[in-house]
Design goal:
Blueprint (H helix, E strand, L loop, with lengths): L4 H4 L4 E11 L4 E10 L6 E10 L8 E7 L2 H4 L8 H15 L2 E6 L8 H11 L5 H7 L12 H8 L4 E4 L3 H9 L4 E5 L9
Parallel strand pairs: 4-5, 4-6, 6-7
Antiparallel strand pairs: 1-2, 2-3, 3-5
Length: about 190
């Protein structure tokens, strides 16, 4: 009998900490902060953010972007990825649609951390793409985890989502965690020369 890792491995606990309306250039979002802590010792993992637009409580097929932090793109303006453009496009589309959410997860560089991401950038400057550079460093293709997502969605009262992503694997991972994903909406942005 197969028992999913989620059942075997104790999961981090997620706690809602605070919320406030935050005006952005796209519109005003109710901004909720959650903290994950390790079971047993209470060690803080990360603080994650949910940006909510409109009345989505009890919503079905709510447009939701599960977005992982990208300091290099979103803060420093790096052109090596399109993370900032995908985030901005998602926020604008959620406002255009009249409701939805962005769950902003603090897991830099596909979960490998900032230092390893910069190491991968150096390798990429010689030709390899993101996945190949991670492999050359002995890192997984994608180390992101989504265990916090079901609890965040439950807190927000979202029944089912239309996932805003270009990654079909993310749909599978969320469904394995019990998230009711009813569809996938691509987030198309123009590529740049890098």
């Amino acid at each position: 009998m197969h028992v999913p890792d989620r059942v075997i491995r104790p999961q981090p606990q997620t706690t809602w900490l605070a919320s406030a309306d935050v005006p952005t250039r796209f519109g005003t979002f109710a901004t909720h902060v959650f903290r994950t802590t390790e079971p047993g010792d209470g060690t803080c993992q990360h603080e994650h953010v949910a940006l909510v637009y409109g009345d989505i409580r009890g919503g079905e097929a709510v447009p939701v972007r599960i977005h992982s932090e990208c300091m290099t793109s979103e803060v420093f303006g790096s052109l090596k990825c399109d993370c900032k453009e995908q985030l901005d496009t998602s926020l604008a589309e959620i406002v255009r649609l009249g409701g939805g959410a962005v769950l902003y997860l603090r897991q830099e560089g596909r979960g490998i951390g900032l230092a390893n991401k910069i190491r991968a950038y150096r390798l990429q400057s010689h030709g390899p793409d993101t996945v190949d550079a991670n492999r050359m460093l002995g890192l997984p293709d994608d180390a992101r985890e989504y265990d916090v997502v079901p609890e965040m969605l439950e807190h927000l009262g979202i029944e089912s989502i239309r996932l805003m992503t270009n990654n079909p694997d993310k749909v599978d991972k969320l469904r394995e965690l019990g998230v009711h994903v009813v569809g996938r909406v691509p987030v198309v942005v123009e590529p740049n020369e890098h």
